[in-house]
Structure prediction request, 328 residues.
Amino acid sequence: MHDLYKQSGVDLDKAREVKKKYETIVKSTFNENTISPLGLFGGFYELKDYKNPIIVSSTDGVGTKMVVSSFLEKHFNLGQDIVNHCINDVLTSGAKPLFFLDYIAVDTLVVEQAESLVAGMAESCRDSGCVLIGGETAQLSGVYQKGQFDIAGFLVGVVEKELLLEPTKVKKDDILIAVPSNGLHTNGYSLVRKVFDIDTNPGILNTIYDELGTTLGDVLSIPHRSYYPLLESVLSDIVAMAHITGGGLIENLMRVIPPGLSVKINYDSWKPEPIFNLIQSIGNVQKEEMWSVFNMGVGMVLITEEAKVSNVLNLINGSWILGKVIDE
Prediction:
């Protein structure tokens, strides 16, 4: 049955198989606000106990980190990447992540691969109290080359209007507090692939570098860190937050600095992780380009009044004073 459709590149039997495998994984993220059963055309989420809720949404992908992880035959981490990246984006507004939807597009459906991707998403959702409420796995024969796939994610969060973090609340002399990244997160992988010539020599991912203390592949496949569990307790102490992604530290930080103000950064206050120095030295990458492509060890920047700095630093392990807000 469906032999011609299967020959054209779409295997409905595999699609049914993978949906059955998704069911247990996805249900493990459900909570008391999830009121729709699986299999409907939309996911239902009941919003409770909010007086003046602001809905915050985000969508993203994992970029060409997929290429590196595919060479390593690692997919669980990519599921974590896409959820955590979206969680961090809505978190910058002070929002609690509510639910996440995924989109997986493949040339040919590999059940184990799809299951691993969704399992990674579910783990990150559970870690942040977020529901994996729905998704789509599309077989797009002819769109992708053999073995290729792509993933994207869509996340919705909520915050009380009076607690919304936004640039209008930032003032001169507010303090910038940095929270460390755990590596590249999901940005700069096209440059990394070029520097190490990964596409033509994927075996280099198994090379152990003294600077790293492990293989290049191990470091490049570290999942994008989720900051919600870490920062939830200090949201009331900060006025704005920046997620340091593509574009680097200054470009992303200035997105939450109001007109007329700027920032002064103490670049001697931390040392970027060894992976960044390795990329720069092997690729002979200019310093300016490194800082505009990578997070350079800073995953999030929190902005707070000086009186609240000590409390934030005490609650956030590994954080440090990065700089301050100044006149433009």
About this structure: The mean pLDDT is 94. Residues 10 and 32 are 36 Å apart (CA to CA). DSSP finds twelve helices and eleven strands in the chain. The domain at 167-327 is CATH 3.90.650.10 (Phosphoribosyl-aminoimidazole Synthetase; Chain A, domain 2).
